[in-house]
Design a protein that fits this description.
The complex is a heterotrimer of chains A (about 220), B (about 375) and C (about 425).
Chain A lengths: L4 H14 L2 H9 L2 H11 L16 H14 L3 E7 L2 E6 L4 H10 L5 E10 L4 E9 L10 E9 L12 E3 L9 H11 L2 E3 L29
Parallel strand pairs in A: 2-5, 6-7
Antiparallel strand pairs in A: 1-2, 3-4, 4-5
Chain B lengths: L18 E5 L10 E7 L2 E8 L7 H5 L7 H5 L7 H16 L5 H29 L3 H22 L8 E2 L2 E2 L7 H24 L2 H7 L7 H6 L5 H5 L6 H4 L20 H25 L18 E10 L2 E10 L6 E5 L1 H5 L2 H6 L7 H7 L4 H5 L1
Antiparallel strand pairs in B: 1-2, 2-3, 4-5, 6-7, 7-8
Chain C lengths: L9 H33 L4 E2 L2 E2 L2 H9 L5 H8 L2 H6 L4 H22 L16 H11 L10 H20 L15 H9 L1 H13 L2 H32 L4 H6 L11 H14 L11 H4 L9 H26 L14 H5 L2 E3 L2 E3 L9 H22 L10 H28 L11
The chains are: A alpha/beta (about 220), B alpha+beta (about 375), C mainly alpha (about 425).
Chain lengths: ~220, ~375, ~425
Amino acid sequence: MSSGTDKDVEVKDTTEEHSDNSENAKSDSMSKDEAKKFYEEKGLDLSPDVPVKPKPIPAFEKSLADKISSKFGDKIRVDYIRSDRIRVTTKREDIVDVAKFIRDELKYDHAESVSGVDYPDSSEIEVIYHLGSYTDEKLGRQIFALATRVPREDVPNPGSDATRTPSLRDVFYSVEFHERECFEMFGVYFEGHPDMRRLLLPEDWADIPPFRKDFKIKGR
Amino acid sequence: MTTQLPPGMHLETVDDKIMTLNVGPQHPGSGHMRLIIKVDGDYIVSCDPDPGYVHRGEEKMAEYRNYIQNIPHLERPVIHDSSNILYPYCLGVEELLGIEVPERAKYIRVIAAELNRCIYILYWLAIYGIFLGHSTMFMWPAGDRELFIDLLEAMSGARVTHAYLVPGGVRNDLPSNFEERCLRQVEYFEKRLKEYEAIFYQNPLLKARTEGSGILSRTDAIRLGTTGSVLRASGVDFDVRKKEPYDVYENLDFQTIVMKEGDSYARSRIPYLEMFESCRIIKDALKKMPKSGSVRTKLKPNPKGGNDEVYRRVESGRGAIGYYIVSNNRPEPYRVKISVGSFRNLICMPYLLKGEKLGNMPAVYWGLNYWPVEADR
Amino acid sequence: MSTIAPQFRLSRFIGSLFDLIFWVILIFSLVGLPIVFIVLFYIKLPVINGQLMTPYLAMTWMADPSRTLPIVKNFMHTTIFRVMAFPGFGFAALLAAATIFVERKFLAKMQLRVGPLYCGKIEGILQLMGDGFKLMSKEIIIPAKADKPIFWMGPLLFVGAAGAFVSLIPVAPGWVVANPNVGLLAVFAVIGFFPIIAVLTAWAANSKWTFIGGLRALHQMVAFEIPLILSLLGVVILSGSLNLSQIVESQEHFWWIAFLPIGAIVFFITILAELERVPFDLPEAESEIVAGWLTEFSGMMYGLIQLGTYLKLYAFAGLFTVLFLGGWNGPMVWPPFPQDIITQGITIGPVTAKFPGLPLFDQEMLNGTLWFVIKTVGVILLILLPRGVFPRVRIDMILHTGWYKLIGLAFINIFIALGLLYAGVLGPGGLLH
């Protein structure tokens, strides 16, 4: 899973604040169907709606993931393998090597998106590259998510603080504008990017990066 | 110069030979964005796209609303293609919440998505026409677009911002005589499309102007990570509807249009040819659609996603749209990232316009199938 | 309750009208009439029916409708009438206005629209007047760093040059404002002004877009002036004259387009380029350079430029008619003026009104004007047609066309004319003359 265990606990706490504690405790003692019926009668909806059904791990995706884990060993962590989707987390020091391996050996050739996800509780920002392939027929439906985590500072100073990671622009040319967007929205500085300027925000934006969780929308 | 500038700002050196042109945001040929173009005589030396004039923070807004409340505002980035930009969101939320979609709803979604694709392409084509100074090509698609708007109005009740697709199906069933009306209008539209060919695409002046301008090779198209018509015009056979079929696209009869040239003419022609394929899809879907049945799986109020994440994508009028949704046991998504075709194709702009003539700028710029509002999100 | 005139009283309103009339009469008789007399003192007055037209006599005759016509007729032969009304500015402006209206409806029908519809009840016929009033009432904005005198002068010069061009076009036998022996050379000279005006105003506006647009206009017009001049040499060779009226007279039997179709085509294409019409409207290409050299014009300054453009359109179409389509020549279709009205007058009940001085225009002139207008309107429609069909071309394409292709074609045209002349087919003393 993407988020650490500490964060999970914290999130659950906040959930319970919103809901009723006694109801929640009851749901644990009941079977799943009973609980569902109980909540539907009361018009309440407390449990996550995801049915827990373990899916079989698809073979092709497993082979790709095996290739990369045999090469890098414990430098990387395979988060999940699902049909058409693989996700791998690595440290930011190793991300360029991993990306080069993905490009050269696994034949992924472009980035579809670069997303940042802010985790203030663990004081980290996650940067996720979603990679795809045009050249390889078999990889047409595949998306390879390569994630890394960078430290987060409470008082950000984009470009000058420790929130930085190597840029993948030399590996995947197509991340150029995505990384610029990530830089202005999360304050993650991509080292080695040739043109690390703002893209969408106005030039005189003087607030913290707006997609961080501590930037609140007015009135919300 | 010792002044320390904050990131995001930079100093420019001024050259007497080079003239800097601000194409936009108040410029009839820019849309809601700015291209900072430097010209040397009639040749463009460099182009620096400056989007963001309509950045509304849709992704941030999505973090404050629950999965159902997010529907109407997530279609705002490109209201002409509203079904297609909602489509991956619905698919992603369905995967997160584990919802099954009724068979009839899947067909209706495909029909709505293809009608919307035609609306978008016609709108885009109208602007492409007027950018090249062809005023008839501005009026004709803008008028024919009404056909599909009327159809979608009959389906959803709204003319432009439908919010028709919802997680779990579509919002309401088709009206009673929809099938024959849709079939009639689509057949009429196919006849009209052939007239476009005669007045616009076979026009010798248009060909002379756009053929060979702004050539993007196959290697570069892949390296730059382009998508949609830009990619297919450069000879890459990639369409999400074929490669990763969602809903019922694998049952439907259509083909991907690919051209080898990679120039502005090919890029403008691919969306036009795709409208024929859209008409085929609509007709085929109307034939294969179950004639009755449920169209929406009702969700529980305020549904919560698990501690999970999902990445789903569809093919829109401008290329692949991907939604990366992270949830954390809350009714609201923790993070929504929209990866849109316009934003991905934006990277071509400095690449293609460099060294191009200023007169080719509108053809290359709008040929990229770029929608500034969508790119800003 | 409307708040437009809350204190309105009808009696006060009528009183104010009388007040106004009183003051107008007083000022007119104390100031206006003396000025009229002073002016008339210095003007040589005409002799009509054996009587010298003094101011008193003129006013006496004006009061009697049956004796007004000789004055009017006399006035119609003055230069001022020719410049102001026919065949000068008024006629051209009327045709230009009709052209704009026809263009809009024509284009709308091509594009499956309705065009102007509401203003003036009948198919939006007053739309143009509304647009004109709008332009007049708009604020004129001058850029802060513009070179103001030249910037102000631009539209006036443009309309002036277009008017000078219009004045050279003969409409009917003897009906032309200016009839110099080197009429065609005068046309070339006037055409040469337009690029200068475009560049001057573009530079004076001190904006990047106008600068690029002005340079484009300069390049385009200069590139097309040479084929324009060359394409007309064939006509000059065949007709043996530079006077436009004589060129028309030389086409009494055959139009030159029958012998010089290549020249006519080259001239037509250069017309499109000189007029900046689609597909050669690069100086105003809005998707590239906003509105080109017109970017900074607003209000009536823009209106004047538009007026000048359409006057120029009329003049070029008229020139095409004069040079290639036989000008006013055509079969006599205009009915002769009824002689009864001249000899017996019109009898309405007990009153018999005699109108000495009729007819105002002779039959030949009316017939010539009719044919000229028909041909010119046809050419104008042909000039407007590409707007619905073609996209804009690029500046390098247009210059290539002008410098390479059209000049070559124009030379071929000259050789054809020379061949016809030396073969003894046409020209002075030729087979067909």
